[in-house]
Amino acid sequence: MAETNHSKVLIIGSGPAGYTAAVYTARASLAPTLITGMEVGGQMSITTDVENYPGFADVIQGPWLMEQMHAQAEHVGTRMINDLIVDVNFTQRPFVCRGDSGDTYSADSIIISTGAQARWLGLETEQKFQGFGVSACATCDGFFYREKEVAVVGGGNTAVEEALYLTNHATKVTLIHRRDSLRSEKILSDRLMVHDQIEVIWDTVVEEVVGDDDPLGVTGLKLRNVKTDTVSDLPVHGLFIAIGHDPATKLFKGKVDMDDEGYITTAPDSTRTSVEGVFAAGDVQDKTYRQAVTAAGTGCMAALEAEKFIAELESGAAQAAE
Length: 322
Prior knowledge:
By secondary structure, the chain is an alpha/beta fold. Helix content is 26%, strand content 29%. It contains seven helices and 19 strands.
């Protein structure tokens, strides 16, 4: 039987932003409810080695870190619900959201932290080696390829920036682009083209990721030239996919303001959206950094802003009742 639940704060989406927002709002005695979504823990739940999250001298596992954040948020008073929000109504107060389970969730304030997903090539072998040589984040995983050769797929700003960044670790970086010219800004393209550690392979796509099964790891790529259909092999230890990200904001289209790429727009130095009482944290509004630590930071910001919003709401209601 469908249920109706009310919270002062409803957090939509798990992951570093959502869990951090939950910890802060729970410690503020707001008794938040967090709806985990389909991918509990977000992108971190499919990230293996994590070496750049503050506070851990040794390498940790992404899923383990999310389990710890989940447990911490729950321990301080967050109500965790495994459901998927499929509809939201921000035109009434309290706000009303409907879950895939049929349950209804109302709230005085909402924090959106549904994250983003990297665009992938769609190869079966690419999926097989995700986290074991295939990555979508050079700043997250580049450190693991010290003194090794890697490849980057893409031709825009992100691909060029990741290729340049990887030269800090890898001995050689091969940029693979399906066209004959880059789409990145000229200043970035110029830096890449003169870099002695970077080679560009034009008019080419990745057909297959090649690797070992025991232990699981990438050893090379099968490439195909789109103009000649020539197939070639490229030995590498890592493949970085840099063809863009898609914020998980389809549910909120037309409900809050977004930019042309679907990222939720927030006020400067704030997580406030175009709807008063609705906040956005993490990769739904951050197209620049996309790090677990920055997502956690904006989760904290959203919680503090939600706490202030609710305090003002309750103060106004108390004055009106006098």
